[in-house]
Design goal:
Length: about 170
């Protein structure tokens, strides 16, 4: 029993250490996140400057959002992005502002950071078939129902509404 508890403890510590893993981007020499992250990662000064600016300066399309109804019980979202990518730095903070305005539960959002090769460190994401970032994948009851890839077709709000209307 003691050995089992030690194994569980060290497994937990190891998993906790891999969240918000920061490495150096070989191309730019700057900090880059890889693997599973949470929103707390954007509080690091290496990322806060662009995340906070985009989040604060984005004007929500409140009219479109009034018609958006996300079923928090069945919907979940996976965001795959690169902190090195200008599209990711623009779209992801804006998308988080939309989620906040909809009171979407943070626990229903999975954030995966990739390097320039679209690899997430030790995590295998090949099944997600990521070609461009950011890629925002919407699920309803575990099944993919749509994606926003790199930039929205219209706006983030309108694309979100169109994806959710497909049910």
């Amino acid at each position: 029993m003691k050995n089992l508890l030690l194994i569980l403890f060290f497994s937990f510590v190891t998993l906790a250490q891999t969240t918000n893993q920061c490495v150096i981007d070989q191309k730019s020499g700057k900090a880059m996140l890889v693997g599973i992250c949470d929103r707390e990662a954007f509080k690091d000064t290496s990322f806060a400057w662009w995340f906070n600016a985009e989040y604060e300066n984005y004007n929500l399309d409140k009219e479109t959002l009034t018609n958006v109804k996300m079923d928090n019980e069945f919907h979940s979202i996976t965001i795959v992005m690169g902190t090195w990518c200008s599209d990711s730095r623009r779209e992801v903070p804006r998308f988080y502002k939309i989620l906040d305005s909809l009171n979407f539960p943070p626990g229903k959002v999975k954030l995966i950071m990739v390097d320039r090769k679209k690899e997430a460190g030790e995590m295998d994401i090949s099944s997600l078939k990521i070609e461009l970032v950011p890629t925002i994948i919407f699920y309803n009851d575990g099944l993919e129902v749509g994606r926003i890839i790199e930039t929205p077709k219209e706006t983030l709000e309108k694309d979100l509404a169109a994806i959710l209307a497909k049910k």
